[in-house]
Amino acid sequence: xxxxxxxxxxxxxxxxxxxxxxxxxxxxxxxxxxxxxxxxxxxxxxxxxxxxxxxxxxxxxxxxxxxxxxxxxxxxxxxxxxxxxxxxxxxxxxxxxxxxxxxxxxxxxxxxxxxxxxxxxxxxxxxxxxxxxxxxxxxxxxxxxxxxxxxxxxxxxxxxxxxxxxxxxxxxxxxxxxxxxxxxxxxxxxxxxxxxxxxxxxxxxxxxxxxxxxxxxxxxxxxxxxxxxxxxxxxxxxxxxxxxxxxxxxxxxxxxxxxxxxxxxxxxxxxxxxxxxxxxxxxxxxxxxxxxxxxxxxxxxxxxxxxxxxxxxxxxxxxxxxxxxxxxxxxxxxxxxxxxxxxxxxxxxxxxxxxxxxxxxxxxxxxxxxxxxxxxxxxxxxxxxxxxxxxxxxxxxxxxxxx
Length: 403
Ligand SMILES: [Fe+2]
Description:
Elements: E1 2-6, E2 15-18, E3 33-34, H1 38-46, E4 51-55, H2 68-84, H3 94-120, H4 127-152, H5 160-177, H6 185-194, H7 205-208, H8 216-223, H9 225-234, H10 241-249, H11 270-284, H12 296-306, H13 313-323, E5 331-334, E6 338-344, E7 354-360, E8 365-373, E9 386-390, H14 392-395
Antiparallel strand pairs: 1-4, 2-3, 2-4, 5-6, 5-9, 6-7, 7-8
Helix pairs in contact: 3-4, 3-5, 4-5, 4-6, 5-6, 5-11, 6-10, 9-10, 10-11
The protein binds fe (ii) ion.
């Protein structure tokens, strides 16, 4: 057996298989020989040789020394860790990130749309494509999360299922970032989020897109999407437990009132709990065929209320910290009677974001857009404050035009 040892561990009677120093100049003509004396060892140390491979079938053994195979697999793992280690990512302003986030989101929507179509016709998930696009989403989020998040809020009704899937993936990645979780969890949670409703590909369209209330039977069929999703993931090689938990538990509720297993509190994984929060938030802030979207500020307030039963209150607080009280793209009324759009909240007091005033509510007319940093006093570009959130529909303003 070939084993690796330090040269200081070498003793007469051992057989040197390879001196692991092919690039060094040394006086030994051949790399393999039997050690005759301490003098041989001294010479090797003198020539700066550090580690060598010995052949235990041709000489003495050193119990506990790693085999060549073990050494090689350790090195492979170390290389993989370096390659996969997150590169430090430079933060970007919302304006800088917007164009990149738009491209990433378009790619993610296409990947998930195509994937859902493939699964519907009986093909397996091609996980590489999901991994690749989740990696890009994670980079965008690390540069400036608000770009991707604000774009995710725009959804056409027709493609709701896959737009919602991508949105849940992005939100979950942002949420995960708020915790000191293991490296790689952000991506695994994101993959779970992107695939959380994959089981809906097995639910008939007439139930999926039914505008009215579902009958009891239809509701049971709809709920089956979680079990279908688990089955699809079980048939997909390389899916992590983290991604699986997101899919399996996104409809469970903290008080045990969810489905399919009626899990309670800590019976759910942290990722399942996060997924249940994010899924509800994205669903109620999106326009559906049967109801209008809630503004994020209202939705967060509602979820705070519900957190007594459905969600862990501490996790909800963490989620609000992630999203902000006035998320980017929210319309707000300022004390000066100007209506503004929140355009940046990174690293700020959540009640004093950077806003862009766009409308004079008293005169009822648009004004030349002006950026106001609500954390600063008057004279330094600030001097105003948010009185309340305003419904975009009430003023017929599309806030995203002004970001
Ligand atoms: Fe679902």
